[in-house]
Design brief:
Structural class: alpha/beta
Distance between the termini: 28 Å
Number of strands: 5
Strand content: 15-25%
Radius of gyration: 15 Å
Oligomer: single chain
Mean pLDDT: 92
Strand order of the largest sheet: 1-2-3-4-5
Length: 130
């Protein structure tokens, strides 16, 4: 039951090894009675590490019962499209939803800041169907 303080939820951190360095970016894996849930998804460039982290806990992306993105900064949320392609339902505040559906404007800003390093740092950011 949602909100029931007696319902056990196990919280794990998956280290995404951003830039091949441990401890830079991680996501939360909550193991709940309704299935595993992710809080944040990390950059698209770390999607393989995310899959490996899920596997280490005995899960595949298809096992996720929910994915929650707190905000659209790419270190928190850039893998959203990769997860959506595999059937995950992505939850985000309405202010960020437009960027998930069409990341063009967001990526334009990111490219102005990071230039040629954009793809290496953040990977391919894919849209999520509305």
């Amino acid at each position: 039951m949602a909100g029931d303080s007696n319902v056990p939820v196990e919280v794990n951190i998956i280290d995404l090894n951003f830039g091949r360095v441990s401890g830079r970016i991680g996501v939360y894996l909550l193991e709940t009675e309704t299935g595993p849930v992710l809080i944040e998804v990390g950059p698209a460039s770390t999607f393989e590490s995310l899959q490996q982290g899920l596997d280490a806990h005995g899960y595949q992306v298809s096992d996720l019962s929910g994915v929650f993105v707190t905000h659209i900064h790419l270190d928190h949320a850039g893998s959203w499209g990769w997860l959506a392609e595999q059937g995950c339902r992505i939850h985000v505040h309405e202010f960020g939803a437009a960027h998930l559906a069409d990341p063009t404007r967001l990526m334009s800003s990111v490219r102005r800041i990071y230039g040629q390093q954009t793809d290496t740092l953040w990977g391919e950011v894919k849209p999520v169907p509305e």
